[in-house]
Amino acid sequence: MLRSIVFPVLLILAPTAIAAERYPTRPIRFVVGFLPGGPSDTVARVVGAKLSEQVGQTVIVDNRAGAGGNVSAEIVAISQPDGHTMLLGTGGPFVITPITGQKVRFDPDRDFAPITKLGESMTLLEVHPSTGYNHWKDLVAAAKAKPGEINYASSGVGTIHHLAGELLSSMTGIKMNHIPYKGSGAVLPAILSGEVRVAFGPILPAIPHVKAGRVKALGVGGAKRSGAAPDIPTLAEQGLPGFEASSWYGVFVPAKTPKDILTRLHKELTTALAAPEVHDRLSRDGVDPESSTPEQLAARVQLERKTWARVIQQANLKIN
101-105, 137-141, 174-178: which range is least confident on average? Predict the structure, then answer.
């Protein structure tokens, strides 16, 4: 009687165990929702190259830009759940999309399994030297003295840089006018030329200009200082506790991926991220490497939804 019960169960479990043992059996596709050259693409290529060395299969970075990362998420959501297709996840599809109710063909909670966080890229509150601002409190004081007259630039509507400005406004009770640009690459020239005098943008491109005195850094929007610019303090440590606005990068796979493969992927990815050459390269490119458990990554997503939902509601933002 016992054999008749156990034998069929073993037959059912065997294919999964064998698949996990042999994984990966072909190249791994790493889907990125943004164009080549940006921080998301850099993270995927640097980590992917090391992962390829470890598992003995090519890791192909597939850039599928569009809709703030939603296009790439849709592709991975319907892929075979066998560990050969991964998504470089960001806050767009996992945080902003569900908050704003955008119509997409995936459910960020139901259709994906989180693997690990890979790192964060800090936002920078930067101003033109002509403002005379030396502290974020100077900006807030000016905004309160002239309600609605101060403009701030960002890389676009609904981006982390846009939301960082709204979070600052919400926490300090000020009102600034948002000026969206077409990507972060357009924001820094605008600050340098004085076209706009306040902005939230990525930290790395601004560092040379901060050192040269062409841009004034008022603080980074991370929980801790950026490894790329450790001399620039966070806004939180300067008297704005709880302010956190940074771009995070994590790995997700289709939800029905076998557990043994999820475990293997987590081990390989965290090992790759810890390699000195990977850690150093990402740090030089303005990304602070940091791994996590799947549960920690899922918790980060949920926490950010609560934070940004409140900010979006208070600011009455329309992001579609």
Answer: 101-105
What angle do the packed helices 259-274 and 2-22 form, to 10 degrees? 30
Q: Which of 208, 205, 232 is nearest to 287 (CA)?
A: 205
**CA-based Rg of the chain, rounded to a whole angstrom?**
22
Rounded to 5°, angle at Cα 70 from 257 and 318: 140
* Three-state secondary-structure class, residue 236: coil
Ramachandran area for residue 183 (φ above 0: left; ψ -120 to 50: alpha; else beta):
left
CA 259-265-267 angle, to 5 degrees, is 105
Distance CA(137)–CA(143), nearest Å, equals 10
Distance of CA 188 to the CA centre of its chain: 20
Q: How far is CA 316 from CA 121, 158, 308, 309, 310, in A?
A: 26, 12, 12, 10, 10
Q: pTM to 2 decimals?
A: 0.85
The angle that helices 259-274 and 276-284 make with each other, rounded to 10 degrees, is: 70
CA distance 32 to 41: 6
Q: Which residues of 220-248 are buried (b: 16+ CB within 10 A; e: fewer)?
A: bbbebbbbbbeebebbbeeebeebbbbbb
Alpha helices in 174-258 (DSSP H): 184-193, 203-211
3 state DSSP class of 44: helix
* Backbone angles phi and psi of 53, in degrees to 5: -60, -40
The alpha-helical segments, DSSP class H, found in 212-293 are: 259-274, 276-284
Q: What are the structural domains, with CATH classification, of the chain?
A: 26-120+247-306 (3.40.190.150), 122-245 (3.40.190.10)
Express each pLDDT in 32-52 by its tens digit. Answer: 998 888 889 999 999 999 999
DSSP-derived letter for residue 154 is E
* Whole-number percent of the chain with pLDDT over 70: 93
